[in-house]
Amino acid sequence: MNITMGDSMSLDSVDYDPIAHLNLVFSHPSTVSSVARVSSKIQKHQHELSKEITALETAQAYGPDSSLERMQSAQAELAFLFQRIESVRSRALQTERDITTMTADIKRLDGTKRNLTLSMTALKRLQMLTTAYEQLRGLAKTRQYRECAGLLQAVLQLMRHFNSYRSIEQIAVLSRNVSELQRELLEQVCEDFEIAFAKGEVAARRGVLVEACLVMDALGEHAKTRIVHWYVNTELREYRQVFRGNDEAGSLDNIGRRYAWFKRTLKTHEEEHAIIFPQHWRVNEQLAMSFCDGTREDFKGILEKSMRRTDGPKIDVNLLLSCLQETMDFEQGLERRFASEPRASIDTLSSAGAADERTQNFNGSISTAFEPYLSLWVEYQDKALAAMIPKYKTQHLLPEDEEFSPQSVITSAIELFHFYKVTLSQCIKLSTGERLLDLAAVLAKHLDEYAQQVLLGFLQRGGAQGPSIQDIILVLNTADFWQTRTEQLEQSMKKRIDLQMAAKVDLSPQDDNFGRVAQAAVLALVAKVEMDCESAWREMKNTNWSRMESVSDHSSYVGELLKHVNGKAEEILPLIVMQKNARTFCDNLVKNLAETYIHNVVQCRPVCETGAEQMLLDKYVLTKAFENLMSFHTSSSSSGQPPTGFQKFVNVAMAKMDPLLKTLQVRPSPPEGLVQAYLIHIGDRSDTNFRKILELKGVRKTDQPHLMELFAIHRDGPAAGKQLVERSALLEPLLNSSSGGLGSSGIAGASSSTLAAGLGSAGLQTRLDAASLGERLLNAAKDSVERAGGAGGAAGDKVNINENLKNIGNFFRRDIGALGARFGKRDITPTNGGLDG
């Protein structure tokens, strides 16, 4: 069999495929018998190839043109090449030596020329220096200071070129002569200044002194500093003699005389002496700062001495505050005075470090002496704020000449915030440490008092009708105003207080308190609406629900109720500026109306099946009407559609009554139907609650035992047993007081139930007066503190008002949160100042 069939099947082929070749050779089972023959042929072919390879290798290795011979030839050629390279390198080195020898003389001539040029330049400069020195000596003797200044700069600049030649005796002598001349000029100028000021000849010799300052500028910073210090000490000598050597003149009582004296001195300087000194020396600032430094040290000694006194009062607080205020006014006057002077631009980085840039800061330059005693100042601010709170309680909310607007804020809030800003600004200038932290605590305390005593106090006004709507809106706006400003105050103090104390500044409790005041104001607005609805609820209870024979579109009380609700909402909502407050108002109003509706259903017993169906239809009409409440608010009216979140909230709140009404719709015959309806809609195992439903439907006493027995059988059955709760969360609080009545209608049924649940106070189950809303809020908070105190008694009385307000807010959140948890709606959650919109 041929194993080399075709080009692609040849063993010598580049793309030879053994598998394809084998498949071709053994294409049929009958060809298997030729395996041995094929294998033998392949081995034979392999042996032939091996022999051929061996022969070729031998011929290549030992032939006349073998690889070994070519390698030997290449090595010989490389050796010859290396010899030639070495020869070229040797010739290059020799050439370089020859060129160096040829150019050595040229280099020597170039060096000589360069040295000669340097020598001539040095000699010329030395000649110029010697000439300038001699001229400078002559000008100095004749006090020609303007020429001296320019020539002195030239001499000093030339002298710097000879610093490296001072080992030469002549140069060293000249350098000493120049230094001596500098010293003589300095002493001579200082002597001229002393004589002129001592003899009162400043005006007559002003020209000479102006030119002398140019010489001092040329002499350098040390000369300028010496003459400025001498001038400042000369001008302040009288001040130190009068106010330091005299206890009466130097006392705090005469602090005004110190500042008046300096103002006169500064005026004299600017009118007579300022022209003498170059402007960039800023002698007036140096004079002012030296005065401040000396005065500060004087005050430190006086205050320390006063604190060590044992024969009388240490420090008069009023005098201390008066001195502090006068000192701060003086510092601010200096800061304004010198900040307005022209100076180098600070718009660019290059000019920021200019020599004439003003670096003095007079704020705190004297008043820091009072810092250790600022606790007295903080106490004074505390007393001032304590006196302001009672005044604010009796003030009109707005001035008589100011008209109300929906954006108006109580005048006292603006005054108080301005007082806070000014006080904080003053304290920051004096201290950014412990005193600022103490002031923060004082401000926080009085913010709590303002929230409790002033804002909540306004909600108690107005007698039986409560405060007016406009007054409540003002309280609401003020609470929102202070919520924003409290955060601003906190951030401002944290930025300026020492870094290690920043974490201790916390006004978040006060921020929360104003949020709770806003909630209380919203509840007061809700109470206004509920009071207006009493007649509608009275009409509902006067309807005979036990003998109703047919169902109409809606009951007459529904129209009356919607008229009052919409009318009041249309009056109140446009006055509420913030969207979140409007949403909170609508949420609470709907929730309270829904609870009032359920309580009135219980008071309308007995309710027949048709009556329950009519109530369910009335509830549907009310739900659809309540969904549009937010449209009365200006921010919602433009969209045309009520917010989706609010619609969900209304449906959830109004759906609370569905289980009760749907159960009342079922007839007691057959009895199994009523029992099954109760288990489906109410879904609890309570015999008491089931009996109350029977009473609410008006089932006769004689028929109740049979129904109770059926209820027990179905309740304990295997199908319903695991799905029932012990007591319905809806029915239990609703029917607890049904036997004794639920109290009065209207606001008694709505506000009382809401605030009783929210504040945890059983005493609020009775009629709630709008005028007593704020008082009941505070009483509820106090009750919670007393309960928390337990046996501690007095300890509970010491809990601050911050915790009281916090408890109120927690109660509000707990009440609203319970509603959301009951119906599984996450959008019914309390937020800061209202429910999530």
UniProtKB/TrEMBL annotation:
Topology of this chain in the membrane: Peripheral membrane protein
Single Gene Ontology BP annotation: retrograde transport, endosome to Golgi
Top-level lineage group: Eukaryota
Domain Vps53 C-terminal, residue spans: 613-699
Keywords: Endosome, Golgi apparatus, Membrane
Gene Ontology CC: one annotated term: endosome membrane
InterPro entries assigned to the protein according to its UniProt record, in alphabetical order: Vps53 (IPR039766), Vps53_C (IPR031745), Vps53_C_sf (IPR038260), Vps53_N (IPR007234)
Gene3D superfamilies: Vacuolar protein sorting-associated protein 53, C-terminus
Location within or outside the cell: Endosome membrane; Golgi apparatus, trans-Golgi network membrane
Principal place of residence: membrane
Domain named Vps53 N-terminal: residues: 15-392
Pfam families: VPS53_C, Vps53_N
Membrane is among the record's keywords: yes
Family in the record: Belongs to the VPS53 family.
The protein, known as: Vacuolar protein sorting-associated protein 53
Organism: Podospora fimiseda
